[in-house]
Amino acid sequence: MAKSIGDERALDVYQELLTFTNAITETLDVQKIVYWDEIPSIPNHFFKNGFLHTLQSRGDLGEKMGKAFQNELDPKPCQTLIIGTDCPYLTVATFEKAYKELEKSDFVIGPAKDGGYYLLGMKEFFPNVFLEIPWSTESVLPLTIKRIQDQNLTFTLLEELNDIDTVEDWKEWKQNH
Fold it and tell me: Going by fewer Cβ within 10 Å, which terminus of the chain is more open, N or C?
């Protein structure tokens, strides 16, 4: 996005998405952990109340998500969701439905319109779901589903939402909200 609107405007968009994600998730009565590429300098204006902060592992998106799930699920399996900060269409109801669906499925997936997903949830760590996925392509969701099915596991799809990857996505969001 920065290539089309410049670094400064892209940073504004990113901070607005962080503000939105913070507002929608801080009301959830669950443990919330923010995984950062680098921990923001103090004062951090985002994710203050009720959030834990940790560093992401290195690697591609799959390696980062896989390690985050492993960190949270290896000590004790529990319902765990992961999201990015690029989906302003999320609601509290989205999270409530995701947790409810995890009661009966091994995975819950929030499909994004671009072929990826905005939310992934699981109760136990299944590392194979992150292997050999061409991240940021339209193949992410179908390959993830195939990995789940290859292990004879179950999944539930949530409502398809748009995430913000392009200037057009951002303009669409701003026009409607």
Answer: C
- The per-residue DSSP string of 134-163 comes to -TTSTTHHHHHHHHHHHTT--EEE---B--
Q: Could you tell me the CA-to-CA distances from 12 to 53, 54, 58, 65 in Å, in that order?
A: 22, 23, 25, 25
Residue-wise pLDDT for 66-95, tens only, equals 999 999 999 889 999 999 999 999 999 999
Task: Give the closest residue to 1 by CA, choosing from 176, 150, 173.
Answer: 173
Cα(52)–Cα(129) distance, rounded to whole angstroms? 25
Q: Are 79 and 99 within 8 A, CB to CB?
A: yes
Burial readout 11-32 (b: 16 or more C-beta within 10 A, e: otherwise): eebeeebbebbbebbeeeeeeb
Backbone angles phi, psi at 24, to 5 degrees: -75, -30
- Distance of CA 73 to CAs 33, 64, 67, 69, 115, Å? 13, 14, 10, 6, 26
pTM to 2 decimals?
A: 0.93
> What share of the chain has pLDDT > 70, as a percent?
98
